Amino acid sequence: MPLKVFLVEDDEAYAEFIKKSLRTKYQIYSFRSAEDCLVTLKSITPDVLIIDYSLPGISGIDLYDQIKDKLNSKVKVIIMSAIADGNLVLEFIRKGVRDYVLKDEKVIQTLTSVIEGEDEIYFDD
């Protein structure tokens, strides 16, 4: 059974690009907002959650804050952003996010590596 991947991305064209690239390996559920994702999380638990940092309404990191205590520890959470900012990454780490993917020309390769556990980064607490 393929992994269930939730993709929360408000840019429709970018979401389609990611869905088409990943759907051969994974079962993709796509959401245009954090609010839509929250509704589905009540009935379906993903294996992987890919969240765009910049979302309308509830931001990606605020979505993570709302759901992190309800998620099974095996759920892999990936924050995705077009912003290459070390301070932003440190904020994610402080909040408990372990995987950050930059929206660049290698985004699909990087997402796949992180989902498959090939690109894990461990931080000492």
What tags apply to this protein structure?
alpha/beta, 5 strands
Would you mind describing this structure in some detail?
The chain has a 5-stranded parallel sheet, sandwiched between helices. Strand 1, helix 1 and strand 2 form a beta-alpha-beta unit. The protein has 5 helices and 5 strands, in the order E-H-E-H-E-H-E-H-E-H. The longest helix has 11 residues. By secondary structure, the protein is of the alpha/beta class. The chain is globular and about 35 Å long. The chain has a domain of 44 residues.
Compact description:
The chain is an alpha/beta fold and 125 residues long.
Low-confidence stretches: 119-125
- Number of helices, where a helix is a run of at least 4 consecutive DSSP H or I residues: 5
Tell the overall outline.
globular
- Helicity, as a percent range: 25-40%
As an assembly, this protein is single chain
Q: What percentage of the residues does DSSP assign to strands (E)?
A: 15-25%
Instruction: Tell me the series of helices and strands, N- to C-terminal.
Output: EHEHEHEHEH
What is the CA-atom radius of gyration, in angstroms?
13 Å
Largest beta sheet: what is the strand line-up?
2-1-3-4-5
Distance between the termini: 34 Å
The largest pleated sheet is described as: 5 strands, parallel
Number of strands: 5
Question: pLDDT average, as an integer?
Answer: 90
Q: Supply the helix-strand structural class.
A: alpha/beta
